[in-house]
Structure to design on (212 residues):
């Protein structure tokens, strides 16, 4: 794992191997979806490293003991539509009690800025770890706008899980939301003229949902 201030790159061999399979354009859609879910689970493991635990009494088949249990309020996971849905189940596999929210943004073709078309969030974001999920941190404009919405709704601690990040997206997030931790499987080289991450894996939404 490599860690700069707010960027964590999870370079575990399982994550690296699964990501390479996902990058391969020959990987079929069902495999792509399964791999994304598996990597989401592994990235969540890192993103939740600092969740609070408290000792509670339990009884094992052999004895009584004080055992560590998660002690804070349930985290919230927010999918940035539509590709964020590809990560959602992997997060829920390891945090089944998480509340779930959705944020939909589209890009205004004139201003090139993200515009909200949907937002449904659980109440009481304050005090909870809010995990925003979007596979591709490209320009960073959508992620920054989504985090704006989360903070307006009361979120105080936000973490962004993405499969791939571009330096441009990381810089955008660091400028707009320097407090937000980013957990990713890889930091790629750059964006091309169409805004795709290079080497990347293409359009994540199309590959998840078979729409290309
Ligand atoms: N969104 C994608 O799906 N892929 C990219 O490379 C960039 C943004």
């Amino acid at each position: 794992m490599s860690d700069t201030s707010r960027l964590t790159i999870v370079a575990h061999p399982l994550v690296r191997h699964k990501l390479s399979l996902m990058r391969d354009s020959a990987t079929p859609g069902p495999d792509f979806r399964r791999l994304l879910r598996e990597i989401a689970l592994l990235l969540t493991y890192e993103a939740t490293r600092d969740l609070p635990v408290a000792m509670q009494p339990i009884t094992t088949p052999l004895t009584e003991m004080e055992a560590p249990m998660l002690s804070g309020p349930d985290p919230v996971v927010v999918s940035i539509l539509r590709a964020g849905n590809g990560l959602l189940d992997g997060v829920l596999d390891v945090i089944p009690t998480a509340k779930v929210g959705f944020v939909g943004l589209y890009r205004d073709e004139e201003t090139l800025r993200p515009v909200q078309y949907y937002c449904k969030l659980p109440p009481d974001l304050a005090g909870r770890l809010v995990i925003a999920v979007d596979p591709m941190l490209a320009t960073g404009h959508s992620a920054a706008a989504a985090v704006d919405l989360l903070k307006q709704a009361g979120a105080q601690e936000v973490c962004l899980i993405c499969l791939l990040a571009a330096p441009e997206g990381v810089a955008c997030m660091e400028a707009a939301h320097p407090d937000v931790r980013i957990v990713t499987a890889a930091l790629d080289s750059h964006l091309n003229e169409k805004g795709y991450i290079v080497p990347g894996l293409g359009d994540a939404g199309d590959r998840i949902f078979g729409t290309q």
Remarks:
- The radius of gyration is 18 Å.
- The first helix runs from residue 13 to 23.
- Residues 2-50+72-209 form a domain with the Rossmann fold fold (CATH 3.40.50.2020).
